[in-house]
Automatic annotation (TrEMBL):
<protein>
    <submittedName>
        <fullName>Predicted protein</fullName>
    </submittedName>
</protein>
<dbReference type="Pfam" id="PF14645">
    <property type="entry name" value="Chibby"/>
</dbReference>
<feature type="compositionally biased region" description="Polar residues">
    <location>
        <begin position="169"/>
        <end position="180"/>
    </location>
</feature>
<feature type="compositionally biased region" description="Basic and acidic residues">
    <location>
        <begin position="131"/>
        <end position="146"/>
    </location>
</feature>
<dbReference type="InterPro" id="IPR028118">
    <property type="entry name" value="Chibby_fam"/>
</dbReference>
<feature type="region of interest" description="Disordered">
    <location>
        <begin position="125"/>
        <end position="180"/>
    </location>
</feature>
């Protein structure tokens, strides 16, 4: 690995930089490659080429994290995501309850205004009229059902009568057969 870096440095040393990088700023074995993500740092081990995960314990101080630490962090993240989903659901439910309560309050307010303006008897009269309309509608539906039932019964009776009457053939004098 070191020989390839050396070859690259030698190759770039003789040419002007097209990328704007100087040869001394290129990574070498002593320059670690690392990436900081919040309170975590991922570092490439220059000897093995493996990734090392580091956790910040203080300002600029990091310790190496092993597999179990990373697993615990992942589990904690999953727990927090589940909790976040649950809190979002609770928030939705509370908003629905709030909106329904607001609508109920508006309806009650309108009803109170009607009572004040028209009096309590007019509201009772409206309820009675609505009840009468519903009862009338139910009666009409019941009458329709009864008519359909009567028609069905009549058609079945006619079918029974037709089946019971024997079909006889009577010969006429002209040689035509007539069914009775």
């Amino acid at each position: 690995m070191s020989s390839s870096w050396t070859k690259l440095r030698r190759y770039l040393a003789g040419k002007p930089s097209k990328t704007g990088l100087q040869t001394d700023s290129l990574p070498n074995r002593k320059t670690p490659i690392e990436c900081t993500l919040g309170k975590m740092m991922i570092k490439v081990n220059p000897d093995t080429g493996s990734l090392e995960y580091m956790g910040e314990i203080g300002q600029g101080e990091y310790i190496k994290l092993d597999h179990t630490d990373l697993q615990n962090i992942k589990e904690r993240m999953e727990e927090l995501e589940d909790e976040n989903r649950l809190l979002k659901l609770k928030n939705e439910i509370l908003l629905d309850l709030l909106s329904s309560t607001t609508l109920d309050a508006k309806y009650m307010e309108q009803t109170l205004l009607k009572i004040k303006n028209e009096g309590f008897h007019s509201i009772n009269n409206q309820e009675e009229e609505e009840k009468e309309k519903r009862e009338k509608k139910e009666r009409k539906e019941k009458e329709k059902k009864e008519k359909k039932e009567k028609k069905r019964m009549q058609s079945t009776n006619e079918q029974v009568v037709k089946r019971d009457v024997p079909k006889r053939q009577i010969s006429s004098s002209h040689g035509n057969t007539v069914r009775a």
